[in-house]
Design goal:
By secondary structure, this protein is mainly α. Helix content is 74%, strand content 4%. The structure holds zinc ion.
Length: 247
């Protein structure tokens, strides 16, 4: 029985290392999620802001187009005014020129206002784009890091799985099954040390009769409270990793 327990301890040692690797692997998507969320949010903001900028650019083009048209008309009126013959015609064309000049000023004013707003929105668009680019860069670099870590982890996992097969070799199926069952129910630990009359897996006292039997090492015993397979250790020797007290 001592031999079986020693083998099971080896298996548990390997299982703990395998669990640590699996936990790291499970962290990978979480590590990317933050950047993916940031990219999604920034992309939505960017698209919204881009619409505003496009609209303002269109508006500015329209203002400048209107201004050009108005200037053309003013130029033609000016040319016409130079061939005026009557005073009445002269006054009419002066009035028209005055009105066109006013129009130009109004359009120019509008174009300036649109231009200012456009500059402001473009600056904000640039800031959003910078955030987006940064998030994309971070996502890429984190993805690359994960890809390289992942390769190492997979190799280590394969190595450990091989070791586990060798370690489990020769252990009676009943004992292995008992270990597996407890391990799955008890936060990864199927074995617990028994020292000083109590189970170190759950810190409960072990009935003296079982404890005595356990020390003799002729049979496999499980803790009456946490059901882990008990491995007797005297107070000095405690090589097996201990479970958390509440596990
Ligand atoms: Zn226990």
């Amino acid at each position: 029985m001592q031999e079986v327990l020693r083998k099971l301890e080896q298996v548990q040692e390997i299982d703990l290392q395998i669990n640590a690797i699996l936990a790291k692997k499970a962290e990978f998507p979480k590590r990317l999620a933050e950047y993916e969320a940031s990219i999604k949010a920034s992309t939505a903001k960017f698209e919204e802001k881009k619409k505003v900028v496009d609209e303002l650019e269109k508006n500015k083009r329209q203002q400048l187009g209107a201004l050009e048209l108005n200037e053309e008309r003013a130029k033609r009126s000016q040319e016409k005014s130079e061939q005026i013959k009557t005073n009445q015609e002269f006054q009419a064309i002066q009035k028209e020129l005055e009105s066109l000049k006013k129009n130009s000023a109004t359009i120019q004013d509008n174009a300036n206002k649109v231009g200012e707003e456009l500059a402001k929105q473009q600056k904000e668009l640039g800031a959003i784009e910078a955030v987006l680019t940064e998030a994309k860069t971070k996502l890429d670099s984190e993805s690359n890091k994960i890809a390289s870590e992942s390769g190492g982890l997979e190799n280590e996992l394969k190595r450990l799985q091989g070791l586990r097969v060798s370690a489990a070799d020769g252990i009676d199926k009943r004992y292995l099954a008992a270990y597996e069952k407890t391990r799955l129910n008890r936060s990864g630990l199927g074995l617990a040390n028994a020292t000083g009359g109590s189970c170190k897996g759950c810190n409960m006292r072990i009935p003296p009769q079982i404890y005595n039997e356990l020390q003799r090492g002729t049979e496999l015993f499980t803790c009456p409270s946490c059901r882990r397979i008990l491995v007797y250790k005297d107070a000095v020797r405690t090589n097996t990793p201990e479970a958390t007290a509440n596990g």
